[in-house]
Amino acid sequence: MKTSWKGSISFGMVYFPVNVYTATSGSAGVKLNYLHRKCNSRIRYKKYCDTCNEEVSQDEIVKGYEYEKDKYIVITDEDFEKLPIKSKKLISISHFVDEDEVDPIYLDKAYFISPGNFSASKAFELFRRAMLETGKVGIAKITLTSNEYVAMIKPYDKGGMLLYLLYYSDEIKKTEEITELDYNVDIHDNELKMAISLIDNMTGEFDIGQYRNEYQDALKQLIQSKIEGKEVVSPPEAQSNIIDLMEALKASVEAAKHGRTDSRKKGTGKGTGSRSRKTATEGRKPTAGENDTGEPAGVSAGTDTSTKPGGKRKIL
Amino acid sequence: MSRDMFDEKNIVPMAPVPSEPFDSNDYIYEIKFDGMRCIGYYDTDAVLRNRANKDITALFPELRNIYEQFRHKCIIDSEIVVLNKGKPDYSRLNKRRFLSNSLRIDLMSKKIPATLIVYDILYYKDRAVTEMPLIERKELLEENTVEGGRLAISRFVRGTGTALFEQAVNQELEGIVAKKIDGIYVQGRSRLWLKSKRRQDMDLLLCGYMEGRGFLFCDDDLNYRISIRNVDKNTFDLLYKYVIEHRTDDCPLKSGPSNLKGAIWAKPGLYCVVEYMQEMESGYLREAVFKGIKMD
After folding, report:
1. Of A178, B35, B63, B65, which is least surrounded by CB within 10 A?
2. Most A CBs within 10 Å: which of B22, B23, B24, B25, as the mutation test of the A interface?
């Protein structure tokens, strides 16, 4: 798997290199393009400056912050480099907590972590085991590309460890804004019992594998059938072609050998299996007409030399 | 039960050493097919690994049921090829090897399906058979395999290497491999297998890109050798990224044609394998094809 980045984990006196891999593949959905209805060409997005009335290329673009309507301060690459980010490529664990203390709402993107090299394996595994034994997970600060994140590190039951980027608390919206949640209802014990028994009856095992994105499946099928209806899907080539080719080459070589038996020092026929001799004589040799692509087979079974001028292809 | 080579799944495929074609009754000879090396682990399903032991099963849905064509649990050495007019076509295979979108993979598996050409057996029923002499492994392979569908068994001849090589050249196939008839299966490079190729390989350095011409390559002495335009999208992106990241204003070449004005030059540092038919006196490589970025 391709690493997303390489870095190090540090906590207390411990420090070891790790590789970080993206754990999820994003949407498995079909990607569709926008086309011009009239001619079916791709719609392109062009970067355009209204003031200069011209198209702008990537190297002419800088980043800016709109601090007042239509007023910007420009932030250059050099400015970005000056920003004090200490935890660059360093996963610095500040403390450990019980896993159930971390509400799943904070979990963002997931990554796999592995030891960064062979000698880091022991520290890695030690750290992993200790977390397994204690049921704790590590909370750390890390930097990815140009932003700083909080992360949670936990052992993964399929091997290695997992790293989750976490949302900052101010990124989680407040439920207070949902007025419908401000209700007042009475629940009777019997009603609660009934609801609980319903849940008990429907309790099963969590198996994400049994769910499929049926909408995507249907969309893929639609695309498949449209392609098959429109484009002439070339029929899968029969295997017999390659088998015929090999048989023909073999037959031709065997025939040549038998024809030249006298002049050969070695290999006077005794080494060849009966299978091959049969092939040479029982007419499995393909001719141009027999080849189902209609291509000339080009192999002249039973003749010593090839039909093409051999001198042209000099091999060094 | 302890884990064996079937469970471990970390076989390094046996690799031949280059050689001139020759005739010897101590060897069998078979066609070298231009495709993707594949070690297949077959039991109640198929697990396909490439030369670097990367799992490629998902890339070839059309080979998913191929395990049904092996009578017993086995590990099989083979080549995955995509045919074009009955012959392996490397550029067609390239259209398959970098796909990741499952819909694309399904479509392409119908449009240009792959074929598995099997030629060795490393494991049979419950044990490794790598110590068995080659000719016995060949028999075992044949007994254990039902040919047909997307599966072909590689044919071989005994003794007549030069004649088979001639035929391979005439048919414009990649070449032949000579295999010691009583040889065991060795993981990695071994002199028990000798390859003779129709085309030659050369390691060249990427030194630039030019609109219309493609990527520019030079040799170790910084002499210009060849431009190659025809690469797949994935390779294009990789090479182009290298050129941009190692861009230099000065042409790094010691010698080269004068019509390379307007090229984007790059500091030569990335070795690539280029395959060609013939090296001309001028140093030009006839029918050069990009084969890959050199990994070591």
Report:
1. A178
2. B25
